Each structure stands twice: as structure tokens, then as C-alpha cells.
Amino acid sequence: MADLATESPRTAVDPANWTCPAPLRDQPVVVMGHGGGGALSAELVQQVFAPAYGNPTLAALTDSAVLHLGGARLAFSTDSYVVRPLFFPGGSVGDLAVNGTVNDLAMSGARPAYLSTAFILEEGVELAVVERVARAVGAAAEAAGVTVATGDTKVVESGHGDGVYVTTAGVGLVPDGVDIRPQRARPGDVVLVSGPIGLHGVAVMSVREGLEFGVEIASDTAPLADLVAAMLAVTPDLHVLRDPTRGGLGASLNEIARASGTGVRLVERAIPVPDEVANACGFLGLDPLYVANEGRLVAFVPPEHAEAVLAAMRAHQQGAGAARVGECVADHPGMVVVATGLGGTRVLDLPLGEQLPRIC
Amino acid sequence: MADLATESPRTAVDPANWTCPAPLRDQPVVVMGHGGGGALSAELVQQVFAPAYGNPTLAALTDSAVLHLGGARLAFSTDSYVVRPLFFPGGSVGDLAVNGTVNDLAMSGARPAYLSTAFILEEGVELAVVERVARAVGAAAEAAGVTVATGDTKVVESGHGDGVYVTTAGVGLVPDGVDIRPQRARPGDVVLVSGPIGLHGVAVMSVREGLEFGVEIASDTAPLADLVAAMLAVTPDLHVLRDPTRGGLGASLNEIARASGTGVRLVERAIPVPDEVANACGFLGLDPLYVANEGRLVAFVPPEHAEAVLAAMRAHQQGAGAARVGECVADHPGMVVVATGLGGTRVLDLPLGEQLPRIC
């Protein structure tokens, strides 16, 4: 095995391949799609990390884990943020780093409490940029009601980073009686989304590529723990919560369908896709169902509670645009299908990689 | 403020400056020394992160934080690992990522329980390299008695990483009656180190630079939680524990002296510096007191317990080479001095940056 000290990994890249987010799976090198939250990411976890770590929490590797420690049920989660550019309409890498980890904790029903931040800085980046990111972290933490309790900073040589990478981890408490996880989806569950989808991915892409769509599209990045608390106040028996980030709604629903063995049936016209997202996606050749969101959640709710939970969501700032978009069915277990506007159905599969790399 | 999307940070680097680990402090850009664990790192925390985060846990930003959550006292810590090369005699980035965070938790007296791992992979790195790092993480976690509970993977384009960066966070429980922190050092405390110093830094440097010193020098990377438990079994009243990683023993002792306002007096000939480390440091122009360790701790112990704690350390595999190296004094508060072999004394100051960048 080549030692990275003596042989640059760049020499292993196939030049015909290096811009493709979803290339051949038999390539023995890391490709952009391995970071996309789709099938390639799942394969990396299942084939590389799961066997290496060999423990029963493997299934939780893409989620927040719920742990028993000191008599409490603790949610614990981490994510690295490598978004490019660092600042975009509606937010920055600092907002994502806080909200993303806060939201991962909230998707277990936890009340987020403490965060850590670990910065990997590239030599030569302006200290003013670092300061701007740090201030965004501080402001987002205050808005989300969490405390940054511990941190670390490393510096790498110019050409081995991209200004600022931030990794956050978070801990929170899971209330008694709450058991929210993908395996709990079951036929009959109503599928709700908390608002319009696709804004984050399109916002980042438009500024990165210098595109103008007539209106400025801003990221939806926001903390969702308060919204989740409002939903849990209706009933602690929410079955599944998920924030559809990398891979979008399509990836999240497929993961839930596969984990639970239920089918999911969406109604296309019920899915809130803003006109500006639809137009931008049409222009860019993207499917809004696979575009990343950073301030939205999808909920699987028992039918008897669905109307009340939806009303509670709509009464909350972060859920004002909430909608019922589908349901769980006993047909086609493990699969997601979409009833189209023309009366047909199409299969919504797990994406292979990511349409837009470096989105978060 | 320049947006990193449109202006590469590399253009901000002064070419006359880019290899210097400890350059001018009035440069408004990040330099390698900001990641070195010395005075520049401390300034970054105090001048950038502390004001931005604005919370009372700021002093803990370079340590594990002790939090109250769900009725338990929880230690929480994070570190990014950007060591170059990824594999070196005695260990790898995977071992460091586990042992480093386990040790940060142990330095609060905590029993480490769960870890998270977040990988930032560079496009084009061989999957076999990722797998080798993941296996090292799994093996080190098993050896340290901790569970990897959650994780994340991101991929960045070739030329924006260095193969594999790993960020770990960890949580553990602090036993009742244990209160270990730098502020508790006081005159009279005996200073103990758990074994020979300087091995990790010299091991990494020798393989990075292709140097041969006649004997292979292996990193000391090891988990220290069991050793700490053995010490706490003697008395829960340990005052301070610290693993002298970046910046070495010199940086750790200065931080403790400043945090507590006590003076520290070391006896040079009592400090266990292996011959091969002394020889390599002489050749490279390094001071072994500032070279990183990854499997050593320094303890400040009340004098009445010092002999018993030292005996317990020597009876443990990770403390077999433990030694009494000095004491806390009322003189020169906040300063560290070394009694040299020639009968004089010298001040051991906080290093500015790091002698060896990318050491962990």
C-alpha cells in the first residue's frame, strides 16, 4: 500500500474521471460521489467503515446515535462541513456547522445542548475570514440555544485545504418516551415535510457558478430543534424524523424505506418546490428531489396524529410551509414511488452520488 | 472581506513567509504556527474564537470540557488529526485520532465511553488507504475500550486535502468526587510524568524527512484512561492531568502555570529523555521539551499522595517509565523554570508556534 508521504494521492486520479461526481464503482480510489450522501456514500460505510469498526451501532453511522450514559439517554452526532464557497446567500459554513449538527440531534428527538468545533485552516487564509466564520458559529449557536463547549484548531499547508473546514459534534438529551428512528416507519404513516425544498442546494450552486435567476435564492439553513419540540408536544409517538441534506428528499426517503422495509408513496404535486427552485433546476438539469436542504425535515407520523402535528408545524416559524406529501404503504416494500401529475408513477431511487458536490 | 469562492486564499500568502512555522504576529493571515499549540494558537483562541463564541466555557477550548447533562458529569472533547505522513513507526492517523481524544477525556478524569469520527477524504486517495486508517481506528477504539457510535464522510477535490483528515469527538463520564483541571495546581504539588518524552514527534519527523538515526524511533501513541483510573484508585484528589501533545511538555506546563498562577520548577536531569530522542533533537536542532508526545501524561499531585501515585503509575504498562520531574513553587507565579545540570536555571517559555508542523 502506497504511503501518502512518498506518493501523492493525486497521481492515482484518472484524469478522465476527476470531475465526475458519480463514476465507476470499481475504481479503487475515492471519488467526489463518495461524499454525496447517496449509494456510493452508503457503500463506503457498509464496505469500509462498518467492517473496520465492527460494532452494533454501525447502522447509525449516518445519523445521530442514541446512547445510554450516566443514567441518561444521550444523542451524539458529528459532521464535517466543506461547503464551497464559505459564504452564500442566507448563510455560511459557520451556520451550516451549527444547524447541521443541531438538526441531526433533533432528528432523534433530542434537545441539543452542547457543541464542539474543530477547524482545519489552510495556511494563508485571512484571519478576517476565520473570524467571520467563528462569529457565524457563535451567532448560530446562540440562535439554536446551544453552547460551544470545546474546540480545536489545526493548520495545513497552502494547497492542502480550502480556506476553512469545520467539523462539529454535538450532544443532547432525548426525552423519556421518545423513540424516533428510521426503522419505525410503518404502512399507514403520513409523510410530512416542513416547508419548500431545494433552496440550500440551489443557493450554493448559483453563487458558486455565478448564475443569476432573476431573484436571489437564499439557503434555508436553520435550527429545527424548536420545531421538533413543538411536534413532540402534540405526541411523543413520532416514528421517524430526518433532515434531507445531501441527496435531498430522495435520498432520505429511500434510506427510511430501506431501513424500515416499508414502501413510500409520494404525490408529486403535493411536494412544495418553489418556482425559483424549479426554474433553476430546469436550467441546471437537476432534480429538486435530490437537492440538499439545510433547514427542512421530513416526518413519518401515525395517521391519527397527522393533522394535529401538521397544524403544530404550520404554527411554527420553521414549519410555516409544511405539507402532507405522501404516505407509507405495504406495497413495494423498501421502495419510494412518486405519483406524477399525469396520473402515472415513477420510482424515486437512491441517487448514486451527489448532483452538487461540496454542498455542505 | 474577500470571498474564498472568488479569490484563492493562496494569493494572500507572502512567499517569503510560507515555510516559517512561527512568523510575524501582525500578519493578517493564518500561518502554520497557529496550529502548533503554542502562543500563536492561544492568541487565535483568545482573540478570534473566544469573542465570537462569547460563553463562559472559553477557557476550556483547548481541553476537554466537563458538562452537566441529564444528572451526570460528562467530559466532551474534539480534535482534528492532520498528521503527515498518515502512517509512521508505532502508529497512524487512526491511532492518534482515537488515542488523542480518549486521552483528552481522561485528562479530566473521565472514563471515555463513545467516539465519533468525521473523515475529510481527498478525491483520488486509494480506498485501501482509507480502509487501513479505518481499521486502525477500529483497533485503537477496541484497545481503549470505547465504541465508535456515529460518523460522517466528506470528499473534497484533489488539491484541497491531503489524503485523509480525521476529526474525532468523544464523551465520557467523570466519576463523583473528581475535579481535575489546570486551575487546581498549587505550590507544593509534585509534578510527575508517565514516561520518556519526545518519541512521537521524533518518530513522525524522522519518517517524514527520511532520516535514519541508527535505531527506529516509534511513536508512543497509546490510550491513557486505564492509567488514569489506576492513579485515581490511589486518590481522587489529583489536581491536574495533561497529555503534552503539540508544544510538548514545555507548552503544557506553561498553560498549567498560567491557568493556576503557580510557579513550576523542573529538575532537568530528572526528565526522562531517551538517548535516541536526545540525539535526534541535537541533530535536528529541536528542544525535546517542546516535542509532541501522544501517549504520555503529566500529573500535578498533592505531596502527601505523590509517592503512592508514582508507584501506581510504575505498576501500569503505560506508566512503567514514570518519574518525578519537579514541583510547584510559590516563586515566579505563572512561570516554568528548569534547574539545569550545571547548577543554573533557565526559563522554559511557552513556544510561539510548533517546531514540527502537522505532527498530529
From TrEMBL, chains A, B:
Domain PurM-like N-terminal positions: 63-174
Please give the SUPFAM superfamilies that the UniProt record associates with this protein.
PurM C-terminal domain-like, PurM N-terminal domain-like
CDD domains in the record: HypE (cd02197)
The residues the entry assigns to the signal sequence are none
Q: Which residues form the PurM-like C-terminal domain?
A: 186-332
Q: Record's family?
A: Belongs to the HypE family.
Q: What is this protein called?
A: Hydrogenase expression/formation protein HypE
Species the sequence originates in:
Streptomyces capoamus
Query: What lineage is this protein's organism placed in?
Result: Bacteria, Bacillati, Actinomycetota, Actinomycetes, Kitasatosporales
